[in-house]
Design a protein that fits this description.
InterPro entries: AAA+_ATPase (IPR003593), AAA_lid_3 (IPR041569), ATPase_AAA_core (IPR003959), ATPase_AAA_CS (IPR003960), FtsH (IPR005936), P-loop_NTPase (IPR027417), Pept_M41_FtsH_extracell (IPR011546), Peptidase_M41 (IPR000642). It is an enzyme of class 3 (hydrolase). Its EC number is 3.4.24.-. The protein contains 23 helices and 15 strands. It is an alpha/beta fold. Among the domains are: 199 residues, 3-Layer(aba) Sandwich (Rossmann fold); 93 residues, Signal recognition particle alu RNA binding heterodimer, srp9/1 (2-Layer Sandwich), CATH 3.30.720; 70 residues, Orthogonal Bundle (Helicase, Ruva Protein, domain 3), CATH 1.10.8.60. The chain has a six-stranded mixed β-sheet, with helices on both faces. Strands 2-5-4-3-6 form a five-stranded mixed β-sheet, covered by helices on one side. A four-stranded antiparallel β-sheet has the order 1-14-13-15. The two termini are 36 Å apart. Bound molecules: adenosine-5'-triphosphate and zinc ion. Zinc ion binds next to strand 1 and helix 18.
Length: 712
């Protein structure tokens, strides 16, 4: 793993993007690539769409749900629909009462409904029974017969109906005017909801044991996307560059998937599981897809996080489903991204809800993998950024017993990756990928891909025929530093910033072994008021104590310059202090670089967050105090050194600051010249690597929100 190479010191302040980078840190001082754009992986999504894929979960769930709703609707329609009643005039009704043919009535407002003892036909077939009504047109055309009737009582009727009914022994009911009884309203109003809730509860209960209906509803279906070898452009090893050693390790798998019989015949045990580990964006997914592409087998891709739902047991059945699908399509590859989402060591980590669910899912994966006897022709590939937190059970023989590290590419690797991604891009004659590769230490495949895309966008906006080197360098600068921002600084503030940056830069130039200064700028970018960029000649893999001290001196140079020139300090050094303190802390607690503390690792392991020393619960209070004292000593000594050096070179500092103030941006040559120093490094591209840290500037009231960033 390469370490972070370049240093950017800025004047500005606040939130440190590096924190997150450091979480990815393996061993050594690692400042992960600052330009790592989280979530900006345009390729994966679009590629996935472009490829043929299907998502078996889902559709069936909707089918079942629709079915339920239709049944619900039909039932409620049947039950709620009023029965067909004979609509009779009030006079006819009275007649029937007097004739003793009414068994029961129910009044709803002025409407009277009821039941005749014997069927009545209306309109009567013999029209002469009531001569008075002969002239009236019949209410409805065809005579109908029923024992059920309805009639409307005229509101002016004051005809002693009640007495009549009582006399005739008719049962009389009354109901509120809304016709649907309350119990029915409740049942049909809340019924569907109750039904669904009941179903979910039931599912939750039984899913722990099996798939059951949840399968029918698609809940237990794995959400894996399937890429078939036929559909879409195939990913091959040609698309993967710069990680040749890793490619070699997986070639055997390709061969196995192509000729499973040959391996079977010889009884060779082919790895069932391959664990790819490495920082984000290094091409783990790409590599797995390339293996599938090379072997011409289907590729099932799923993120481990997708297994987990709120409902316990769903994850396990999704795993089962995924393995079933893959076995059906064998030979095939199952790719599980972010394996750590389920593969975290059991009984460790925060006990969140869904803890059981995660364990069950993990157990299911283990069970499935144990179930293979190698003849299925299914290879499971998984990726993780944090192999060290995985449950050891996953790594046992017969599971993910083949482990492959995918490291960030070195310079040559970066050049090859750039070549892959510029295949379809018309390049100007001045574009030199080797130079770009050396200007991008710490960048991984995903970053480089992003860089090419940004450069192409820029070239298009500038109406270039081809993408030129300037497009690349500007794109790189923007990715690394953030877009330039139009904010108005007071002349005093600009001058102060110029001194601050000059302080960083001058110490970078004067400290032996420090990374050469590449660029200084007082154009506000992102959240910083100014930046100083330093990056090494070559990729660095480790750091010496002297080098780290130099870094701290440089980081404190901005504040020292302000202090020296103005006799006062500002909030602008917030990030510098944070960065310096972090380095010092790690020197003392992690790398044993403090004589007083000794060669002891006392910091919690940054990867597992478990305290390392001394009795396993963390350092004893005395050790802690000693660490703090040592960190403070280192910082104070470095600050004193920075202040002294700048004092001794006050003329260079003034000259550099003045030049910077006038020019706003200086590249390496200009900067060394302004400081009256010979250039140290062949200035290749005046582009850097490193980012300024966003933050808040309490002095000016500007906040660190990523608000409107205006590109010039
Ligand atoms: N070695 C490489 N060669 C060519 N392209 C690469 C390489 N590494 C990454 N890329 C590009 O970056 C994209 C993202 O990489 P990929 O998704 O494979 O990274 P990953 O290691 O799986 O990251 P994560 O851990 O975030 O899932 C790829 O689709 C590819 O375009
Ligand atoms: Zn600074």
């Amino acid at each position: 793993m390469t370490g972070r190479q370049e240093e950017v010191v800025d004047r500005g302040s606040g939130i440190n993007r590096r924190e997150q980078r450091e979480q990815n840190a393996g061993k050594g001082l690692r400042w992960g690539p600052p330009w790592r754009v989280e979530g900006a992986r345009p390729d994966t999504e679009s590629d996935r769409w472009a490829d043929s894929w299907r998502r078996p979960g889902g559709s069936r769930f909707w089918l079942v749900l629709t079915g339920l709703l239709v049944v619900n609707w039909l039932l409620s329609g049947l039950l709620l629909a009023p029965p067909q009643r004979l609509d009779v005039p009030y006079t006819v009704f009275r007649e029937q009462v007097e004739a003793g043919n009414v068994a029961e009535v129910t009044t709803v407002g002025d409407t009277i409904e009821g039941r005749f003892e014997e069927e009545v036909t209306y309109p009567p077939r013999d029209q002469n029974s009531r001569p008075g009504e002969d002239a009236l047109p019949p209410l409805s055309g065809q005579p109908r017969s029923s024992t059920l009737f309805t009639t409307e009582r005229p509101s002016f009727a004051d005809d002693g109906l009640m007495n009549l009914l009582l006399r005739e022994n008719v049962t009389v009911n009354a109901e509120p005017p809304d016709r649907v009884p309350v119990w029915q309203q409740l049942v049909f109003g809340f019924g569907p909801t109750i039904l669904l809730v009941a179903l979910l509860v039931w599912l939750a209960r039984r899913s722990a044991a099996g798939a059951g209906l949840s399968a029918g509803m698609g809940l237990s279906r794995s959400k894996a996307r399937r890429y078939s070898p036929e559909g879409g452009p195939r990913t091959t090893f040609d698309d993967v560059a710069g990680i040749d050693d890793v490619e070699e390790e997986v070639r055997e798998i390709v061969d196995f998937l192509r000729n499973p019989d040959r391996y079977r015949r010889l009884g060779a045990r082919v790895p069932k599981g391959v664990l790819l580990s490495g920082p984000p964006g290094t091409g783990k997914t790409l590599l797995a897809r390339a293996v599938a592409g090379e072997a011409g087998v289907p590729f099932f891709s799923v993120s481990a996080a997708e297994f987990i739902e709120m409902i316990v047991g769903v994850g396990a059945s999704r795993v089962r489903d995924l393995f079933e699908q893959a076995k059906k399509d064998a030979p095939a590859i199952i790719f599980i991204d972010e394996l750590d989402a389920i593969g975290r060591a059991r009984g460790s980590g925060a006990t969140v809800s869904g803890h059981d669910e995660r364990e069950q899912t993990l157990n299911q994966v283990l069970t499935e993998m144990d179930g293979f006897d190698g003849s299925e022709g299914v290879v499971v590939m998984a990726a993780t950024n944090r192999p060290e937190i995985l449950d050891p059970a996953l790594l046992r023989a017969g599971r993910f017993d083949r482990r492959v590290m995918v490291n960030p590419p070195d310079t040559t690797g970066r050049q090859q990756i750039l070549a892959v991604h510029t295949r379809g891009v018309p390049l100007g004659d001045d574009v030199d990928l080797a130079v770009l590769a050396s200007a991008t230490p710490g960048m991984v495949g995903a970053d480089l891909r992003n860089l090419v895309n940004e450069a192409a966008l820029l070239a298009a906006r500038r109406d270039h025929e081809r993408v030129q080197m300037a497009d690349f360098t500007d794109a790189l600068e923007k990715m690394v530093l953030g877009a330039e921002r139009k904010i108005l600084l007071t002349p005093e503030e600009r001058e102060r910033t110029a001194y601050h940056e000059s302080g960083h830069a001058l110490l970078g130039m004067l400290t032996p072994g420090a990374d050469p200064v590449r660029k200084i700028s007082i154009i506000p970018r992102g959240m910083a008021l100014g930046v100083t960029l330093q990056s090494p000649e070559t990729d660095r893999y480790g750091y010496s104590r002297r080098y780290l001290q130099g870094r701290i001196v440089g980081a404190l140079g901005g504040r020292a310059a302000e202090d020296l020139v103005y006799g006062d300090i500002t909030t602008g050094a917030e990030n510098d202090l944070e960065q310096a303190t972090k380095i010092a802390r790690q020197m003392v607690g992690r790398w044993g670089m403090s004589d007083a503390v000794g060669p002891v690792s006392v910091l919690p392991d940054p990867r597992t967050e478990q305290p390392l020393v001394l009795d396993g619960t963390g350092p004893a209070p005395a050790t802690r105090e000693l660490v703090d004292a040592e960190v403070r000593r280192i910082l104070e000594e470095c600050y004193a050194q920075a202040y002294a050096t700048l004092t001794g070179h006050r003329d260079r500092l003034d000259s550099l600051a003045r030049t910077l103030l006038a020019a706003e941006t200086l590249d390496a040559d200009e900067a060394y010249k302004a400081a009256g120093l010979p250039p140290q490094a062949p200035a290749e591209v005046a582009v850097p690597a490193g980012a300024d840290r966003p933050g808040s500037d309490a002095l000016t009231g500007r906040t660190g929100q990523p608000e409107a960033v205006a590109a010039r």
